[in-house]
Design goal:
single chain, about 900 residues, alpha+beta, Four Helix Bundle (Hemerythrin (Met), subunit A), 4-stranded mixed beta sheet
Amino acid sequence: MSSVPLPQIPQVRETAISADPKAGVSQIIEEGRRWFHTAHESECDALKINRGRSQLIDAIIKALMGDAERRFFANNPQTQHRVAILALGGYGRQEMGLSCDIDLLFLYEGGTDQYIRDITDSILYPLWDNKLDVTGATRSLADCISISKSDIRAQTAMLDARLVAGDAVEAERLFAYLKNQFADKNKKRRFIRAKLEEQALRLKRYGESIYLLEPNVKESEGGLRDYHTLLWIDKAAFPEKRDVFEGPDELMEGISFLWRVRHSLHLLDDKNDRLGVLQQGPIAKSLGYTDGRFSAAAEQLMQAYYRHASIVHLQCQRAIEQIVDTVLPPPKILEMLTRRKFAPGIFRLGNKISATNEASTKDPKAILKLFALANSKMLSLDAGTKELIMQNIGEIEKSDLYNETINNLWIEIFKNPESLSRTLTDMHECRLLALWFPEMEPLIHRIQHDGFHFYTADEHSLRAVREISHLFSKSGAKSFPIPYEAAKKIRRVHVLTFATLFHDVGKGRGGGHAEVGAELAKGIAKRLGWPKEDCDTVAFLVRSHLLIPTLAYRRDVKDPHLIERLAQSVETSEILAMLYLLAFADVRSMGPHIWSDWKGGLLAELYQNTLSQLEGGGEAAKRQRVLLKKLERVYQIMGGAISREDLGTYFTSMPDRYLLQSKPEAIASHLKMTGKLTDAIVVTQVHQVPDRGLSELAIVTHDAPGLFAKITGVLSLNGVNIIDAQLYTLPDGTVLDLLWVTDLTQKPITNNAMWSEINKEMKGAISGSLDVHELVKRQSKKRLLSRVRKPGDTQIEIDNDVSIGETVVDVVTPDRTGLLYDISRTFFELNCTIDRAKITTYADRVIDVFYIRDAGGEKITSKERLKQIQETITDAVA
């Protein structure tokens, strides 16, 4: 914590406040703002700044109270009254930042209602008039007692109560009640359980991780609320204590750091507590961080944040565990059932392992045995044991980290996937993973500003392991049946879990992280004494971990050419299963709202198609049999509405990808839609696909210039998110467009009235009576971008190898309203035909993939033409 002395706190002039309360308060508040800015910029300790601002607010309220009492007594000299003004919440704890609320309790007994109104109005209105956020509750002691019994939040706020002005005797009555309240063991335990439950719900809401890309300084794990929860539990557990809880120096340093960041946030963005990407750069510079050769100022700030937040979380959890063990000891019967001695000084109680034998927390072999034990028993280490390990970590010699026994223990740990995530997370919290595997150092607290990842690189890697762990549990079989079945094919489980932990180990070193990481991970496996086959597989998995998601989300997962090439590259079904599960875990662990049933379905479909290729054979003949069988089934469904000859012509005119992926019922439905086109401009049909979390929109119309752009424009205007599209044109000019869509929350669209409106607008757009282009332009102007677009944000890549007949254009860019419309319209203006489109959204970024041909229906090979397309699409996106 900073030792810079605090500037002199402004003096409150009671005469000025008495003469004109609003103007007097205004003057001192303005002086207080300047004082706050000076203290913060001088790098004074943030906790001292908080107390200084609290004292300034105290002085203002005392002056207002004194003036109010003098005026009231002058008019009512015989009145008997008792009123105390108490500070609650953060103000009560003397944690007053510049934008923090001022929570007041007017505690009264006796007197008149008019007197209470005079007092409260005299205090509150001068503060409100100066735009301070003040809440004031007026209650008797009886009211406080009643509300505390039914409202846990009100009871918590009163725990922070502090007398500011007025009757001290009345305040002491409240303090005495609270003390007596928690003298009752049952009430004490009920309160503590409620706060622990509240904490669990809070962490679930705010991401259950310290290492979020954009943490909430107050509410996220490791934030200020962790410390507040400890304070409340401590006050309830030991009500006889009157002194404020003071934790270890490193805890208080962490709290001071968090407050300093919060002060900077409020100075930049008023009451915002979320340390967002846009705020990190300016705040880092304001706190003295500068861009370095290998890391930006924002990255240095966030690394410091994660370091302090992890200490705050661990210290608070340890203290809470100690209090709970004291106040809420497990029932004797539970202790008898769960307590088990594993070794001298090592025992189990509940779901924790505790090591009181210090030797178990010093020697590398003993430490690893402890974690291997926890892993095999599916338990975690308690906070005290983890802290002992952290205290002793500096004494460990690196030469003692590897030997045959230790290497075998690592194999044992990686071979037990079901509780591996918990074990590795505990080890990382104790800083042991970086000790054993220094290759991980660049990942620790490394933020990833790529628009895809919500967590730091190390947290993302641990969460990926957690996804793999889940697949080996009973709940995993129910939640994800296809990945669960793939997991059964893996005999070298340790290779999969190891590769998952280290799949991003190449990040932060320059160059392609997959290639760099493959060599690093292989080196670690060799250091652990693994056989060559395992080392080579680890290297392949890390090097290729982006392959399956890239193919699934950017390419046609039914393309036989693509499937054959993938099957050749993986060679065995076990390695294919590993690569699929690594992709599954990687995508699911990027962050909330990244995963969707549609994305999972594409990964699974590519895996199953490739597995069939590996385990099957005679694919061409097999496809032909499938198509003949499907044609016969469609003919039966049509019931004579089409001749076999015409149906054969239709099948011949459609590509294999349509015939293979469409069910007979869908093909028959599309044929019936085509029959209705003679009397309509456009025919649409919606089919819900709940197992994939989307809706399928079929559109049949006549081909026209810019048709797909008009369709995407109408859908954009109605808030429809296109995630995949297959576009087909028959020889007679009839168009069949199949679009898989969701609403903006990535859920199927089941509102029939909405679909009716879309159908109406689709007719207008295609006929020309509705100017889609103008409407999309207006909509885009109304909706501002959520982030500033910077050079390098957009990448346009062209691939002429993956498809035999089409050029593939990948557009990776931040998302915005009307983006797909602008791109598809630009392709039309470039005289390009779009055959297929795949639209994938990750957080605020999209990967839009278009299979295109030139006006003559050919692949585009001219370098000049490809350069023109790349430059024009880049301009359209920007």
